[in-house]
Design brief:
There is one protein chain. The strands form three sheets. The protein has a two-stranded antiparallel ribbon. A two-stranded parallel sheet has the order 3-4. Strands 5-6 form a two-stranded antiparallel sheet. The longest helix is centred in the N-terminal third of the chain and has 38 residues. It has 15 helices and six strands. β3, α9 and β4 form a beta-alpha-beta unit.
Length: 399
């Protein structure tokens, strides 16, 4: 495929080093977004025919070629070249090469700005829906784990010291409840971003009257994002909201992983990782390392930093589009990829994790029932503070 011309080309060549600096890795990231770019362009092409800018026959020629590009991209046979900067340029160059002047008409009534906004919005919607399904699958794995091991008692800890009786069901149930809240967060983010920005141009609308309701419906958006300036301002804000929801999933994994790393240590032995979920040492033959848990724990910090990146990049900018916003694309895509991998790994983990019932039983020592003993005295009429002191004294004398 020929590199073709840049969409903004005006007859001069940019400095090569400056061009590489400004393009960055955008052309690489856009390989993941080609199908969404084609989808948005198909809706736009049909809308242009509807309002009489192009004929219906020409619209269908564009649609057919855009569908071809999407299929080629799915097979890895359509490449965005660095010289093209992004997928929008690559697709328009392809259409112009295949359809001549008709290919040049597709950009009528839109800017790369609202085009990219729409593409990212479609990508985010699909990504959130996939993460919601993966989160539900994870909850199913947790519930199966509870069904198998839930009735086993084990110590509850505060300040990393034994506190009160707990159980596998109680500990795992907390993970279930929290993930259900994470699903609500993702659903909230999905509701927020389900607005079509297509037709807002570079942030100040279009000189021609577009049928924005039509393209919104074609693309499956719940509504049209009306104010064109806010459409631009929402870029970064919406991405940060999505990443925040994803970071809450990874936050749960961070805490869960720390618990399992600690309580699967031989010194505790409450939980047992299957061998196929551990790695070895290149030097020490005895080692079986919980690397999957350590990676789950660490990757929360990456996702929360990606949220921070997007917020920092988006802040302190004047109203209107600024090239800074190009740099929000990478953190969003990376955040989705890490979270999806984490959800899949966590589901696999709980479908294979074991509980050592005997080690848990032995850990249920007398001191862990101290609070219960104090309240039995309370039930007999002893003031709580006196009961507290009595049980504490009894335990000290037995040590």
């Amino acid at each position: 495929m020929m590199a073709g011309k840049k969409l903004w080309e005006k007859g001069y060549k940019p400095n090569r080093e400056i061009e590489e600096f400004t393009v960055g890795d955008d052309y690489i990231l856009d390989q993941k977004l080609l199908k969404y770019d084609c989808k948005a362009s198909i809706a736009h092409a049909r809308m242009l025919a509807k309002i009489g800018i192009i004929t219906r026959a020409d619209s269908e020629k564009l649609v057919k070629e855009l569908e071809n590009v999407s299929k080629l991209a799915e097979r890895g046979e359509f490449t965005v070249e660095k010289e093209q900067e992004d997928s929008q340029t690559a697709i328009e160059n392809w259409l112009t090469e295949k359809l001549g002047d008709l290919g040049k008409k597709l950009h009528t009534g839109r800017s790369r700005n609202d085009q990219v906004l729409t593409v990212m919005r479609l990508y985010e919607k699909d990504g959130l829906k996939e993460c919601i399904q993966l989160a539900k699958s994870y909850i199913q794995a947790l519930n199966a784990f509870i069904y198998k091991y839930g009735e086993i008692a084990l110590p509850g800890y505060t300040h990393t010291r034994k506190a009160m009786p707990s159980s596998v069901k109680l500990w795992t149930g907390a993970l279930v409840d929290s993930m259900q809240d994470n699903i609500r967060l993702m659903e909230g983010a999905l509701c927020l971003i389900d607005q079509s920005p297509l037709g807002t141009g570079a942030g100040y609308g279009s000189p021609i009257k577009l049928d924005r309701e039509y393209t919104a419906k074609e693309l499956g958006f719940a509504s049209v994002q009306q104010n064109p300036i806010y459409a631009q301002l929402s870029r970064g804000k919406f991405e940060a909201t999505v990443l925040h929801a994803l970071s809450q999933i990874m936050f749960d994994f961070n805490r869960m992983a720390t618990d399992l790393i600690l309580f699967s240590m031989p010194e505790f032995g409450y939980y047992e990782l299957p061998d196929e979920f551990t790695t070895g040492s290149s030097m020490m033959p005895n080692k079986k390392n919980p690397d999957v848990l350590e990676m789950l724990r660490a990757k929360y910090h990456i996702v929360v930093s990606l949220e921070s990146q997007v917020k920092c990049i988006s802040s302190s900018l004047p109203t209107g589009y600024n090239r800074d916003m190009q740099l929000t694309k990478g953190p969003l895509i990376k955040g989705f990829e890490i979270t999806k991998q984490g959800l899949k790994a966590a589901s696999l983990l709980f479908r294979s994790l074991k509980v050592n019932k005997e080690r848990c039983r032995k850990a249920m020592t007398e001191d862990i029932y101290a609070t219960e003993k104090a309240y039995k005295l309370v039930e007999k009429g002893v003031p709580f503070r006196d009961a507290y002191k009595q049980v504490s004294k009894d335990l000290s004398e037995k040590r």
